[in-house]
Amino acid sequence: MGSSFPAYLGRRLLWTLPTLFLVSLMVFVLMRLVPGDPALLILGDSATPEQLADLHAQFGLDRPIPMQFMLWLGKMLQGDLGHSITSGEAVLPLLLERFQVSAVIVLVAVALAALLAVPAGLLAAWKQNSVLDTMVVAAATFFLSIPSFWLGLLLLLFVGLKLGLVPVVGYVPFSEDWRSALSFLILPTITLALIELGILTRMARASAVEVLRLEYVTHARAKGLSERRVLLRHVLPNAFAPTWTMIGLVLGNLLGGIAVLETVFTLPGLGRLLVDAIFARDYPVVQGCLLFTAAVYVLVNLVVDLCYPLFDPRVSAS
Questions:
Q1: Which residues pair with 83 in a beta bridge?
Q2: Which of 119, 172, 289, 317 could bridge to 180 as Cys pair (CB 3.0-4.6 Å)?
């Protein structure tokens, strides 16, 4: 990458700014298009017009929409995402607290899936059109086809209720008892790992099949190198680059779409916070959740792009 890396990093960071601005604008506009008055939801149907007006003024909902957006954007640039309309809590600390639960599940699940998928895809490509290849592809397709909530319910039923190996409902923060916290995260982590195992295995296999057809692999075999050395030294490094890209996309998608699984396992994560805030018309929390998720997604993809030259020497940051 050489001396061009700082310039490349600067350009990539610069491009994230308009992306986050457009996301914040779309989120703000879409939230204002959602029917329903959050003040009415808080005060109830018996609220008087004077009470509604006071609450609108308290949260700035009586101001013009462009002014509301500019005020929110200015506070956001200072690290202030506002306060929840329903609970009064500061949004940013609330997001960071809930994000810890989601991040642990997603990171561990994707790591487990990658550790299993890459060797499985490599072996399947090496034994292409064999019984092993058919079994790996069939298993990957099976896991890829299962809805995450359905698999989660099955694990809850058999592992949690029938076998009683892990608790079924509830959650304990890591700060109180990390062992109990891990026990509540085992099933959702396994669920996500199995779901993502399918797509990562198929990607790893497709990349390895393509690399195995290249001339330098044939040359390495002609030199008398063992199949093990050919696979580990020549095929794996070059086939892993596309899989690494897919891992980054999976991470970003899971962090933004884990709401269903957190609802199934009753976990207080970022996804469930977003769902609850949408039903409550809690504008600051919804906006904060969506913007935070978008920022994490952009950051994950930035890290993936910056690491790409490490896995594929043919790619530079120039």
A1: 90
A2: 172
